[in-house]
Amino acid sequence: MRRTKGLVTIAALVALAAIGGNATRGSGDVALAGSGPEPLVTVTRTTAPQASRATAPPAPATTSTTPTAKAPATVPATTGTTSKAATKSTTKATSAATTWVVTKVVDGDTIWASRGGVTEKVRVIGIDTPETGQCGFTEARNALRGIIGGQRVTLTPGARTDVDRYGRALRYVDVNGVDAGLRLIKQGYAVARYDSRDGYGSHPREGAYVRADAASPKAACADPNAGSTSGGTSGNGLAGTWPQAGDKYPCPQSRPVKGNEGSMIAHEPTDRYYNVTKPEQCFATMADAEAAGFRPAKV
Asked: 214 or 79: whose pLDDT is higher?
């Protein structure tokens, strides 16, 4: 019995020892999990996301520098400025004084001029001369022909508008340093007109033109209707009353040949379309009309 109790006691002790060993190994495992180098690994794993977040701010820094990418926006502005400058330069070049050849003197204030294959009808700025059929028309036209006819002239803009309502270029006309418009005023063949005094706007040479007009006497002229009669024969050989019956745009009887600038055709009183032709010029003979660049009507 005593032996049996001893065996039981030994067995119990062995069992307790086994349990104690397991407990010892378990407590060791726990200790290893909570101490030693393992916590360092844990700290590293914990702070790694923080390090990632810490490095995130450089992205906004890069974004903050992106406004410099807007610099190219100044290019269109610069280009636009250059374009305006170029346009201004082109406009200035177009309106600058240029040299032309006079091909025809229409009257005392209107001419035709040619340059580089281009022909332009030009109205002299700031003056006015007699119209076709008015006293002084022939004298003013001949005076201008004497100043610039067939010569190279300088045409310079200066009026408020570049062209008049008839499409004629408005220009000063200078030849060899002489202002043709001013010369006509001084000679009494033209008057200063179409300026700030009558609603057309001032022009750079207006003062000189007005002063010359006030100082110059009106040139004498031949009455374009002199010698006309209600019957009989005039100096050009035409008989009967004048103007002809049905003539809507009569010329003076002393200069009956009608020159139409639109067609550059001259019509004599016996021509088919004479009575309905509106003349810009009247001539004493067809020879005079041809000398001025017109051709005779065929019918």
From this structure: 214
